[in-house]
Amino acid sequence: MTELAYMTLSDWGQNGLGMQPQSARIREWLGEVPYLFAAASAKGYNEVGSLDRRIVGYIAPRAADRRVGEIQQLRELIHDDSTIPTPITVLRPFEESDCDLLARLVREERLGRVFVLVEHERYPIRVWLDAMQAINLHTGTTAESIAPVLLEAARSIKGEDYNGLSSGNGKATIVQLVRALAEHGHPVDPELWTRAYLAVGGSFRHAASVSRLVTEMRQGTRHRVKDHYRPEIYDILLERAEGSELN
Predict the structure, then answer these.
(1) Could you tell me if 37 and 88 are in contact, meaning their C-beta atoms sit under 8 angstroms apart?
(2) Could you report the per-residue pLDDT of 122-134, keeping only the tens digit for each?
(3) 94 and 173 in one domain?
(4) Could you give the CA distance from residue 69 to residue 56 in angstroms, rounded to a whole number?
């Protein structure tokens, strides 16, 4: 199982005061050198004044202790059916293709230990990391675990995402399940629902639709959708969740 940790850029930098101590904390978690680094773009990494190069220089000051490549190069692990046990640091992933690739590699256990430097705490990659119970190295904590019944609801949503989630059956599934769980005390919280969807293997592209629809519902939008589930859907999901916990 892949070990995951992260830190946001602001927590790492702390207005210019935190780079050295926070980098030391990252090194301690990563373990022995050499370290691998994956940037979104080699061209961007090599530009004068590159932030990624600065980050790498703090985490691995000695050139002999680091190797730098691109995130998409990690796709070769899938083609070769291989793994990377060496600690790897992923630098500020943002593009959906990069985030989905990282999620797949973790899901397939092709990476041993991964640290992610997150550009901004609001970015979807941070939500995914919390969904995966990654350690926030700044606080030393992990996100609260997701209620099993919510994970079951998220699996139902994922089962409809092949045609998208912004309309049709996908939208109806989200709206009805959010309403059903809200009636039993589960919050209409876009981040929580997005985290649950990503936790069960949902894609970053469709996660945006989950977040948007739940946000609209929290703001009071009354979506008109066709009935997709029976009134007792909550009890059905709860029974599935209890069954999963027993297995």
Answers:
(1) yes
(2) 999 999 999 999 9
(3) no
(4) 12
